[in-house]
Automatic annotation (TrEMBL):
Pfam families: COX3. Keywords: Membrane, Translocase, Transmembrane, Transmembrane helix. One of its GO terms (cellular component) is plasma membrane. Its EC number is 7.1.1.9. It is a multi-pass membrane protein. This is cytochrome-c oxidase. It comes from Pseudoalteromonas ruthenica.
Length: 291
């Protein structure tokens, strides 16, 4: 009878959700202003963006610390573990819908809008009225304003980054096997390799953006191709950053001796998220770079 009822820990009221909301508001305002003020050489948007990032880091550190302390104090029950798994599952599902919307915009532009604008079917009048010289091909290297750009090829940095993320999934799986076997040394090594590979990916993506702006003339305002390219790859890069932060926190906890072969959901949640990010990148590589 003693095991019939499980204890259920109810945490104290937390200020972190509202702090996170404020941080995201600052980041949204700062990012928007920074894009608008880009040609002016800067402005208030940069300060809003930095403030938002600083508040977000403060929130993450504080919230992670609270949850870790609660977990290490043995306050969580099996019911809490199930709640965490359900919460992480729904979070990843929401991320699937998030990227689904952007992929949907890409497919709509490529499969419907571009052919219509080129006069396909019964839309010849649309082509003649809106853009008579329009050539219905993808990627669009000519904007309505007359600016030209070049498409980002799949060879070079995109291919290298794809290999890096695929390898990082393998190293993370080795780390997962190690934690299930309680092999702390192997766990630490492979988890650290995963974090390093994630950092290399982000560095190379920054190099790719510099190449796009300086050498290809490919920018956020380069028509629908530039929009979809930077929104999809940029948001993915943001998610890689978040995943790398999660894995770094897990790595620090591993070094401190946290987790066991039976209880390691924080590691498992970060692994789920990282594998999701890898799958998204594979879709990006195929539909944005290759096709």
């Amino acid at each position: 009878m003693s095991n019939q009822y499980e204890k259920y820990y109810v945490p104290e009221q937390s200020p972190w959700p509202i702090v996170g909301a404020v941080a995201l508001f600052f980041i949204a305002v700062g990012a928007g202003l920074s894009v608008m003020q880009l040609e002016q050489g800067g402005g208030s948007g940069t300060y809003w963006l930095i403030a938002g990032i600083a508040v977000l880091v403060y929130m993450l550190v504080g919230w992670f610390r609270n949850v870790i302390n609660e977990s290490q104090s043995g306050l969580y029950s099996a019911q809490m573990d199930r709640s965490f798994k359900q919460g992480m599952s729904w979070f990843i599902f929401s991320e699937v819908m998030f990227f689904g919307a952007f992929f949907g915009a890409l497919f709509y532009a490529r499969m419907l809008a571009v052919p219509w604008l080129g006069g396909e079917g019964n839309n010849l009048m649309t082509n003649e009225v809106l853009w008579p010289e329009f050539s219905a091909s993808w990627p669009l290297e000519l904007t309505p304003g007359g600016d030209t750009t070049q498409a980002m090829g799949w060879q070079g940095l995109p291919l290298i980054n794809t290999i890096i993320l695929l390898v990082s999934s393998v190293t993370l799986q080795f780390a997962h096997t190690a934690i299930e076997k309680d092999n702390r040394k192997q766990l630490t090594v492979f988890l650290a390799l995963t974090v390093i590979l994630g950092a290399v990916f982000l560095f190379l993506q920054g190099e790719e953006y510099i190449h796009a702006y300086q050498d290809l003339g490919l920018k956020l305002d380069s028509g629908i191709y530039g929009n979809t390219f930077f929104l999809l790859t940029g948001f993915h890069g943001m998610h890689v950053t978040l995943g790398a932060i999660m894995l770094t926190v897990v790595l620090i906890r591993v070094i401190k001796g946290h987790f066991s072969s039976e209880k390691h959901f924080a590691f498992q949640a970060a692994a789920w998220y990282w594998h999701f990010v890898d799958v998204v990148w594979l879709c990006l590589f195929v539909f944005v770079y290759v096709l």
